[in-house]
# Entry
Amino acid sequence: MARILSMKDAINEAIDQEMTRDKTVIMMGEDIVGGAGTAGDDDAWGGVLGVTKGLYHKHPEQMIDTPLSESAYVGAAIGAATCGLRPIAELMFIDFLGVCMDQIYNQAAKFRYMFGGKVETPVVIRAMCGAGFRAAAQHSQMLAPILTHIPGLKVVCPSNAYDTKGLLIQAIRDNDPVIFLEHKNLYGSECDVPEEPYAIPFGEANIVREGRDLTIVAYGLMVPNSLSAAEVLKKEGIDVEVIDLRTLSPIDMDAVIESVEKTGRLVCVDEANPRCSIATDISATVARDAFKALKAPIGMVTAPHSPVPFSPSLEDIYIPSPERIAAGVRKIIEA
Amino acid sequence: MKNPFPINKDGLLEAYQRMKTIREFEERLHVDFGRGEIPGFVHLYAGEEAAGVGIMMHLQDHDRIASTHRGHGHCIAKGVDVKAMMAEIYGKSTGSCGGKGGSMHIADLSKGMMGANGILGAGAPLVCGAALAAQKLGHDGVGITFFGDGASNQGTVLESMNLAAIWNLPVIFVVENNGYAEATSVDYAVAADSYVDRATGFGMPGITVDGIDFFAVYEAAGEVIKRAREGAGPTLLECKMIRFFGHFEGDAQTYRAPGENEDNRKNRDCLKLFRKQVTEAGVVSDAELDAVDAEVMTLIDEAVEEAIAAPLPKPEELTTDVYVSY
# Structure
């Protein structure tokens, strides 16, 4: 039965259901329980934004608070994944990647290949990502492209609560290391979410809006922003198709190319910085594989090549807004 | 004559066989690398055998170890197939990892060997995870992470010591202190006077042993492994040892004192010491050890011959094993 659920609650429910189904699913992270060793509540926080609140009392043996020590506990999650557990490590913000990157890209990502296919590493690294929270340069980045670049990692960045539950369940059941990026500005976004567990396969993009004139490819927060832009453009007679990639590795290029062959125009929308991004990757692939289908140059709407600024007035123009996306589409339609 | 050692005669011969296998494996690689027959980087464990074997004699397959860039000795001591290792170092399809890992990435999880590692200190958190898995899955396996005096300065090692201590994990942090971090002296690079002091700082016991004395290592390792198995938590074990070769093959070792290598070979050879100890006690004869030597030489010769004759990986292997197939 479906009910309206927020993305935040969908994450909680997915972890709860998987921990109930499989006792080898454990989770570790900083204050994912909160209050360990204190005189107060033993589950004071449930994660810094309360995403995992309540899971400790349901699964006390499976929820483990860690010291502020990302290299050690992310590495421990990866090591445990090769020894019979299915750990979820929460990296509070993906920006903290720098202090545990070795364990992710030199260890987890490479074990299977480097050891001749004999080792599986079923670990999920959940992390908040994205701008718009007034959290400034070191708590706001969209680092999906850096992670997508690395063979051996799977990278997921959902745009709504329904996909989040299904993709997170798939991530936990998956036998490869999965980076699960949760846009913090989407935690409150709500939609119908079935109560029963379900898995959404990786590598299947979702056409969230059908249209004739131009294809927008987006992921994460850029999906709702693109849909808002599409509504504005509709009033101007521009009919936009919006593709939600859902997973960046694997990536569903077939869906993108099929759409571009129908519309003849492409705008890639990416909250990441513009160089070597998902937007440039999609653009290059379409230019190579579907050049003849293009009626206009490929457009890109991205963050600028700058760190995320603090001042709200600057941050608001850093993030690709529905207005900027609409302007980017008009430019290609008029080209 | 009464056996004064904590291991029976078969065990002593087994320990000698493992140490000798490591020695000859490495001596042979040294020669063949010099001839240009081996691709890539190799870092040799010769001289350090007593530490790896003295510890590994206590372990079973469900005990996990994380090794270093200098990993051949740990692999052999933990029971990884020697011929498959040699083939791996030659980059052949019959290698432990199908030729995709090489010297610095030999692993065999079925033997509890979580991998040699090209990243210094990276094994420490991985072994914490193995130990956590043992706790959660309810078996008495321990995790042992090896790292050198060089990697002992990596933040990830220090973070892991703290994590293992607060979670009371069955982990042994083994510092293989051969005095050199690549070409830099431990006296220059390590601030603490003693690794025991470092262990104390993380709330765990620390022990320093003479790593060239197999029996000293065996005894100390036995205690700390028993302690970990019984749920008493992690320990640091420093083995002071000798690296017979350079950091990597091709290292001219001009940082060493004049005559240092020759003196080590002559006076600080753990295999010679072991032979002296067991023969003087009258428990094992020279002839019995010589017979092991002969067996080992045959094994290494065969390993090299088979590695050279083995097929290269097929081109299509370039892109297999990068994700799990469903």
About this structure: Chain A touches chain B at residues 24, 26, 61, 64, 66-67, 69, 71-85, 87, 102-103, 106-107, 111-120, 151-152, 154, 174-176, 250 (CB under 8 Å).
